[in-house]
Specification:
single chain; about 100 residues; mainly beta; Jelly Rolls; five-stranded antiparallel β-sheet; four-stranded antiparallel β-sheet; about 0% helix; about 45% strand; globular
Amino acid sequence: MTERTLGGVGTKVVFENDRVRIWELKLAPGEKSDVHRHDLDHILVLVSGDRIAVQPEPDTGGPYKDYLAADVIPGMAVFVERGGVETAINVGDEPYVEVIVELKD
C-alpha cells in the first residue's frame, strides 16, 4: 500500500485547551476535505448547507463503513466515536459549514 498523507479534521482550529479542540470545516459545493483520521471522539455541529456526504477509507475504524449522504439540519449535533478515516464531501448546492468539537481524554 502506498503511503498517504492525512489532512486536518477541519479547515482550521478555532479553539484548543487541555480538554477540547474545536475545528471549523467549510466546503464549497462539490468540494472535498482532505482524507483525515478522527483520533478522538467528537461532536459535529451542523451550521449551514443542504447536503453532506462522508466517504470512508477501506481501513476506517469508525462507525461509518459505507458512503453516506444526508440532508443538513442546521443546529443538529451528532456524537461520533473515534477511529474514522474518511473524506467529507459537499454534495449539495450551498456552502457547507460545521463545527467539530474533539473531546480529549
